[in-house]
Conjugal transfer protein TraG (Klebsiella pneumoniae), 500 residues
Amino acid sequence: MTANSYFEYVLTLLGWLVNNGVWQTLTATGLFALPLLAKLVALWLKARGQGADEGNVARLLVVWVEHSLYSALLVILFAGVPFLSVDINTITYDSQRTKQCGWSVVQPGDSGYAPLINELSGQSASVPVWWYFTHALGKGITSAAVAVLPWKPDLRQLRFEVQHTLIADPALAQELQDFVNDCYGPSRTRLKRLGSDISEEQSREVDWVGSSFYLSTPGYYDHDHSRSPRAAWPYDASRDDGLSDTGGGGYPACKEWWSDGDAGLKNRLLKQVDTTLWQRLQKLGQSKEEYEEAVLRSLVSPRNMQVSQGGLVYNGFGGSAGDNLSQTQLLSRVGGIIGTGLSSYALFPAFDNVRQALPMVQAFLEMALVICIPVILLFSAWELKTVITLSVVQFALFFLTFWWELARWLDNWLMQMMYDSDTHSYFNLWGLQNTSDDLIVNIIMGVMFLVLPAFWLGALTWAGVRIGTAVAGVMGSAVGDIRSAGEQVGKMIVSKTRLP
């Protein structure tokens, strides 16, 4: 079992200690059996109300009682009885990597799972098997989701262009473009998505279409194939199963398409190169494979594309459509920038307080949920449906950590990702527009620490778990005073700088 902070560790341990005390009270007084008795009476009354057409009512009653008691006993055994010792440990974070990534990076080996004995005032707590499992699963999924966030805001959109000027045969140039689209593009995307562990030398080597990595590694060029029939390869029923036989050829695998003798794309491309170029390259004293690779690399090269249209980053509805602002709109925009800038003095300290307070509120809610578990299960008459609902609520609270890590990552890197990349040009006529929108986005990113969790909790209603309003209301009221306190200094600054 893990805790993201020492604060959460203390409250979680306290919650399970109180939970154990509540459970002991229920068992010592016999209250845990009252719902079972109520179920038996309800089933007996239901059986008495059955008509003669229902058959053997006594046998029907026995089946109902068995189903009801078995499910209730399972809930009591796995979700009620404290069985496993609480072995919570706080996660240790790598501060250096955290600074680089913008989200909390756990040190290797410090996953938090260890055979520890946790005591508070000399008392040790235990946890039911089911809640031990859901705690470990929820924390694990949350940590895995956080680890998906990229380490660097390196935004690029690449276009792989065939250098048609070096290939005299237009049909061959088009076939090479097809190879890039059908083979190299999907394989490169798969490599990035899988996050394969490759060396620095291999990372340079995979940046061209004839990479030996794609040719020799299973799951890349041996997996992808031409999406159009190729006349040089006859249709093979075993290889091309599921693909239509149009009579125009088969669908070779990318590995075969690239290196299959004289029909292979590699040899046909090399034949396009002028013989004088080969003679000049041979004088350099390099191996044949090296200068062949150099020539082939020049045929398809990645080009950085500029995504932002003329430097415009945002597409809001302020001002007029297009790239023109009237004099009135220009003055309004300047006034908006000044007003937003002054307001940020009050808002940003408040946002910082909220960011600090939210994980604390989360820990308190987790503690409250743990304490409520035995009482809620008792009132539900040990229903399996209630166990599932409480499990979803517990996971929803744990997963709030991911949304806050995402909001913090965006707050740290969004501006750098948009502006310090090849997708955007600084040289544009939209400086005023972008400056105004940048201030607004910074304010919106502060609000995202509340909006993203609210959306998450609200989205759970689509699965039939209606907890969003309750949890969001508790969190909103809890951080309201904290936010107001953070605004005080900013409001003082704004009042002192207000124009007469």
